Amino acid sequence: MSMFKIFDISGSAVSSQSQRLNTVASNLANVDTVAGPDGKAYKAREVTFQTVLMNTGDGAPGQGVRVSGVTENQAPGRKVHDPANPSADADGYVTYSNVNAVDEMVNMISASRSYQNNIEVMNTAKTLLMKTLQMGQG
């Protein structure tokens, strides 16, 4: 496999993890949301990844990753008894989003680490390519 294809493979992972981080940020921003744009409580979104075969140019297999979809978590939202709230139902309960802040923080840390690791792979490949060029000059 060509050293240059490492950038394509790691780049696909960086792009996917970036989208995952954006989704987590959106979820965290809506932890205490009562009503979304459709009048219902916000539902947490989850990113799904898919392996992608990449052409390496020399016949060697290479795999990258891409986001295959972003889905809504269908778990019920958190219900709080607050009859004075204008969003309360007939029984006095307010339905908040189904976002779990702790789970989202763990997801954010995982995505951030994956992002950093792939950046490090690209930096290492760049360093190796630079060293190779320097050897050719000497």
UniProtKB/TrEMBL annotation:
<keyword id="KW-0975">Bacterial flagellum</keyword>
<keyword id="KW-0966">Cell projection</keyword>
<dbReference type="GO" id="GO:0071978">
    <property type="term" value="P:bacterial-type flagellum-dependent swarming motility"/>
</dbReference>
<dbReference type="InterPro" id="IPR001444">
    <property type="entry name" value="Flag_bb_rod_N"/>
</dbReference>
<keyword id="KW-0282">Flagellum</keyword>
<keyword id="KW-0969">Cilium</keyword>
<protein>
    <recommendedName>
        <fullName>Flagellar basal-body rod protein FlgC</fullName>
    </recommendedName>
</protein>
<dbReference type="Pfam" id="PF00460">
    <property type="entry name" value="Flg_bb_rod"/>
</dbReference>
<dbReference type="InterPro" id="IPR019776">
    <property type="entry name" value="Flagellar_basal_body_rod_CS"/>
</dbReference>
<feature type="domain" description="Flagellar basal body rod protein N-terminal">
    <location>
        <begin position="8"/>
        <end position="34"/>
    </location>
</feature>
<dbReference type="GO" id="GO:0030694">
    <property type="term" value="C:bacterial-type flagellum basal body, rod"/>
</dbReference>
<comment type="subunit">
    <text>The basal body constitutes a major portion of the flagellar organelle and consists of four rings (L,P,S, and M) mounted on a central rod. The rod consists of about 26 subunits of FlgG in the distal portion, and FlgB, FlgC and FlgF are thought to build up the proximal portion of the rod with about 6 subunits each.</text>
</comment>
<dbReference type="Pfam" id="PF06429">
    <property type="entry name" value="Flg_bbr_C"/>
</dbReference>
<feature type="region of interest" description="Disordered">
    <location>
        <begin position="58"/>
        <end position="89"/>
    </location>
</feature>
<comment type="similarity">
    <text>Belongs to the flagella basal body rod proteins family.</text>
</comment>
<feature type="domain" description="Flagellar basal-body/hook protein C-terminal">
    <location>
        <begin position="91"/>
        <end position="135"/>
    </location>
</feature>
<dbReference type="InterPro" id="IPR006299">
    <property type="entry name" value="FlgC"/>
</dbReference>
<dbReference type="InterPro" id="IPR010930">
    <property type="entry name" value="Flg_bb/hook_C_dom"/>
</dbReference>
